[in-house]
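If you are new to this repository, start here. Below is one unmodified record pulled from the training split, so you can see the exact layout before writing a loader.
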Amino acid sequence: MLTLPDMKSKQSLFIQMEPGCRNRLFFRNENIVFERDGKIINQASCHRVLAVFMFGDFTFTSGLVRECRRRGVSLFFLGYNFRVYGFLDARGDGNYLLRMAQYQLSPEDEFTIAKNLVKNKIANQTSLVNSLKRSSSSFELALETLPLINKAKSGKELLGIEGNSSRLFFNEYFKEIDWFRRLPRVKPDINNLLLDVGYTLLFNFIDSLLLLFGFDTYKGCYHKLFFQRKSLTCDIMEPFRCIIEKQLLKSFHLKQIDKEDFFLDQGRYSLRYKESQKYAGIFMEAIMDHKEPIYLFVYKFYRFMMDEVNPFPSFDVLTKEVK
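And here is the target side for that same chain:
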């Protein structure tokens, strides 16, 4: 099992492939090596790598796959539009006790877990808005929503509460950056496109951690079973979405976002190819800055699943603490 000291030394690699070049990834002398047109561009020790995200077209060797699986390194293949089209992930498939625990949860226990995740998400949203200190009055979304969550009787009702809370949060937190509304995957503006980019990277990072512990990532509690949807990864991602949202606003303040980096095609915004690495790097840096609390949350969730005497974890976006 991946330990916290291991996690502290691990990193995720982001590799941008160049169109029209012979991009190749292979394993040599304990290193993951990236080669372009026969020239080595970069390499990293496999002992320090948790996951590799590869954007674009390339070839790779069977030796790379074999060694990455043996050493617990996950490989994710993404198009230039950041859409994941394949992956070779490191798994803890043999942890049948954990998977039994997942599938033996009662509907009541699953609903309790779902409520905890939503409470944590809304608490972090409230903290982010209050941290801006725009006025003397505090944003009391968490206080107003908590009683509603406690009284919720169904997953559909909980989903409605969470959706309404997120709408209020987005409108307040992003009002200085010409916010319209959240439209996942539609990409009607730059803000929605960048949130999709960040959420995609965060999703795959959390998914790789869950797989390392041996979770069945298709079996969720808040997000129910649905064909080919990694519902548990969607669940655990909820308290950490605030990392991406915080980074988006920060990037606007730092003037890292240039409208010239984007183009509109048939009503959908896209990134220009040469700028995709820039924005992936911005969000990956934010995610890696939180890799330890994300790991601790997954680890404590694992302990909770194996024995419910262990407390359910919670994440604080401002202190980066996991309790």
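Two things worth knowing about this chain: DSSP finds eleven helices and ten strands in the chain. Residues 107-132 form the longest helix (26 residues).
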